[in-house]
Amino acid sequence: MSVLENWNEWKNFLGDKLNQATSAGMNNDAVNNIAYQVGDYLASKVDPKNEQERVLSDLWSVASEEEQKAIASMMVKLVQNNGSR
Q1: What pLDDT is attached to residue 84?
Q2: Ranges under pLDDT 50 in the chain
Q3: Overall number of domains in the chain
Q4: Which of 14, 23, 54, 80 lies 20 to 30 Å (CA to CA) from residue 29?
């Protein structure tokens, strides 16, 4: 099973990667920029595997670039608060 198929596993995976990035000294602006790039890639190249990803994909598809950056930033905050540590 892919990490993308289970929402909680996906959040934990992202939380772990976020912790690695911040431990390596990456600042919030860089993290948010990478989150935006990953979100853009996933929206254009990967079919959503669960309901939560479908909602994010649908929101991403109608959002302006500024709104997409806000979505990416909110995902970073979500995994900071809920990802595994």
Answers
A1: 47
A2: 84-85
A3: 1
A4: 54
